[in-house]
Protein: Sugar (Glycoside-pentoside-hexuronide) transporter
Amino acid sequence: MITEELFNKDTTRLERLSIKEKMGFGFGDAACNMIWGPITMFLTYFYTDIYRLDPALIASLLLFVRVFDAVADPFMGAVADRTRSRWGRFRPYLLWGAVPFVISCMMMFYTPEASERFKIFYAFAAYFILSGIYTIVNIPYCSLGGVITSNPEERVSCQQYRFAMAGVAILFCSLTLLPLVEFLGSGNRQMGFFWAMTLFALMGLAMFLTCFYTTRERVKALQENEEGIFRSFISILKNDQWVICAAGMFLDCVPSFIRGGAIIFFAKYVMQLNTTWITLFMSVGVAATILGSMLTKYFTTRWCKVRVYIGIKLVLVFMSLGFYLIDPLNLTLMLVFYVVLNIIHQITTPILWSFIGDVDDYGEWKLGKRMSGICASGNLFALKLSLAFCGAFIAITLSLTDYIPDNPAQPAQALSGILFLVSLVPAIGYLASALLFRFYRLDRHTMREIQLALLAREKSVKRDER
Structure:
């Protein structure tokens, strides 16, 4: 019989991860965000104001590529689940995919001197290739978070380090990208973007390798999943808590992607800031998310992380509407508000990602199958669908409200559309997330019971093997 004391000995003390390994794990997401962070924040701006594509065309591009990429995610998860190597199932892809990821990033931000038709084709092809390689690297990385430890508290801690370090990477990018574009391009913003993103990609390469060499996979499936890929897709749908988690991932990303993609337009055209102040405003917001990530464990060690998640989302509903109440020309007040909003927003992010390992444990307990790759990739599928929806939604909103690229004097309806994107849409996303997770059952007590049952099952299997 597995007692509470034995459980603590086996899953808490023995799987307490070192700071070095947690930081190594965090370097993986930092690497991803050296490339994906600027894409989230600046891609729509790059395509409208630098590459000079029509916003409606951008909406089509983002929607098509991101939906296709999202559909590919579960297949990559299934492939990773079936990978066998001396480095584990998921870590090898950090090694194999890092260099192609760098090259695809360079292609993505290169602006060819060619006809309009060829530029449209090139933009589609480059974004398609980058998204595909990102899938090959990022799905295994996200799966690694569920097998690096089986301790639910350490999973939150790993995600805390992950998002803090990802925040540092995004902060670095937001602080330096636009100045580097000016410096490296010598007035040519097209070349400036290319060389700046090349530099970021090479830094990401070093971080991927650091993650590979400093982490290891500890959680092993008690029984190998011999199902075919399509049958595994059907099996994961029987995990009702995974379905909630994946749907929650879609909703949770709406405030991040909508506001994150529109904030540069808000700072430039509504707040009327110059390039220097835009960089500072966005960077302070990113710095606030780092602090928010580091505060997560303070809340989750005192209260059940599910209750913390729901409560903070409800607070954010009302805070998000603050953009309508604050004078955008009052820089000091807006800056303070934006910092506080981002701190509170980010507290829930490590919690959400820790749920992925929990629902994987729940699936093994309920169905007798561990499907870490498909479990993580299904959530990435939801994330990328959200990214596709949000990118297209931003571009369509700009088009419908008569946004004029790179024009300091925007029409009143364009300014209202931008304010709608940074305030009301995120508020709706926060509320929907809070309501959905009222049906999520894997609270602290339930997870402890599941861990006890899995530990008992593991010991039974080991006894039978002897």
About this structure: The domain at 19-215+228-461 is CATH 1.20.1250.20 (Growth Hormone; Chain: A;). The radius of gyration is 22 Å. The chain has 16 helices and no strands.
